[in-house]
Amino acid sequence: MNKAYKFRIYPNKEQCVIFAKTFGCVRFIYNRMLADKIAHYRQTGKMLQTTPAQYKSEFEWLREVDSLALANAQLNLQSAYKNFFSQKRSGFPKFKSKKTSRARYTTNNQHGSVRIENEKLRLPKVGLVKIVQHREIIGKIKSVTIERTPTNKYYVSILTEYENQVPEVELRKFIGLDFSMHDLYVTSEGERANYPRFLRKSERKLTRVCRWHSRRKRDGNNRERMRLKMCLVYEKITNQRLDFLHKKSYRLTEDYDAVCIETLNMRTMGRTLKFGKSVADNSFGKFREMLDYKLYFRGKKLIMLDKWFASSQLCSSCGYKNSEVRDLSVRKWKCPSCGTEHDRDINAAINLREEGKRLVATTVGTTGSNAFGEDVRRLQPARVERSLDELGSRHFYKWR
């Protein structure tokens, strides 16, 4: 199993220069190889296969940086080409920009070239870098990724490999989560997340700083200073959001054995003019990913139901389907069959929980196996969509 740990590092001035050179060389070799591939295909109609080593004779300064960083840039380009031909949503590989692209590179651990010594991290071509290691690293280090944020902070993601036996947990405590535009989610027990809406609260300050930045002269020191202030505001919003999502997801994974949610296309919802900013603010897709890996590491399950399941229209008491509730403006309604009054979100969360229980019972009952070994992580009506074994090769950040 693979797991990644993210730490803050504090390089000195000489090491910052080496990092800047590596970022630039990685970006250069990616763009040069992409340009050569495009030109070769236009001339011959065939794919060009090149390596970073073939460019070092022409560009001697490529030898100053870590060779494995350049090799990983080549692998990233090959992966981008593969995704373009295999996935419909993936577009053609784009050239990396010096200003807008993320400054990062990845290097591998070969024979202990990457290790931690005396509370410092040893990196190829860089040496010992001060690191704030706030948790113990478990397993063997495979690779590290160095990243520089827009606020000139440096972070390292250490990918490790270790053998871990996921504990087996019997699914007893279920909870349903219904997506809420303002509260993030509403549980089947009537609890609301009460998302603070960090982006909305910082909108005035962000607008003011962006206006200051746009009025400054290009390539000037004042514009750079305003850019740093603008990035600090964005960074604070991101940190606030991630902290809130981690705490909520951690509590849910500790208290319940199975979480039932519906599969929503957050990308499509984020493109709407009416709800786009709210969807981007609460980041429900990121919250779903956190629930995914945190439940998996505890041997618990995330049950994702079909988005076409009428959770809001069904009465949780008698099962009557009220088509009038399809209108999103209807927040409370009374069942014409049994007369039960429902809150739209709480009723939907209860239906999601009960549907998740039904699918678990159906899956376990038809196969004859128990709830320990049966795959109920991502269920949809009448079929199992994905298996737990697919998570073995994923890279997860150990935040909680």
Walk me through this protein's architecture:
The protein folds into two domains: 2-161, no CATH class; 174-200 and 238-390, Nucleotidyltransferase, domain 5, CATH 3.30.420. It contains nine helices and 15 strands. It has helices spanning 13-44, 67-86, 198-201, 203-215, 221-255, 266-270, 276-282, 284-297, 344-367, and strands at 2-10, 103-108, 115-117, 120-123, 127-132, 140-148, 154-161, 174-180, 184-187, 258-262, 301-305, 332-334, 341-343, 378-380, 383-386. Helix 1 packs across helix 2 and helix 5 packs across helix 8. The two termini are 17 Å apart. Residues 366-400 have low confidence and may be disordered.
Compose a concise summary of this entry:
Helices cover 38% and strands 20% of the residues. It has 400 residues and is an alpha+beta fold. Mean pLDDT is 85; it is low at 366-400.
Note the main attributes of this structure:
single chain; 400 residues; alpha+beta; Nucleotidyltransferase, domain 5; seven-stranded antiparallel beta sheet; four-stranded mixed beta sheet; 38% helix; 20% strand; globular; disordered C terminus
* Element-by-element helix/strand order: EHHEEEEEEEEHHHEHHHEEEHEE
- From the 3D coordinates, which CATH architecture of the largest domain would you assign? 2-Layer Sandwich
User: Mind telling me the C-alpha Rg?
Assistant: 25 Å
Biggest pleated-sheet summary = 7 strands, antiparallel
> Percent of residues in helical segments?
25-40%
What proportion strand?
A: 15-25%
What's the helix count?
9
Look at the structure and give the CATH class of the largest domain.
Answer: Alpha Beta
Overall residue-averaged pLDDT value: 85
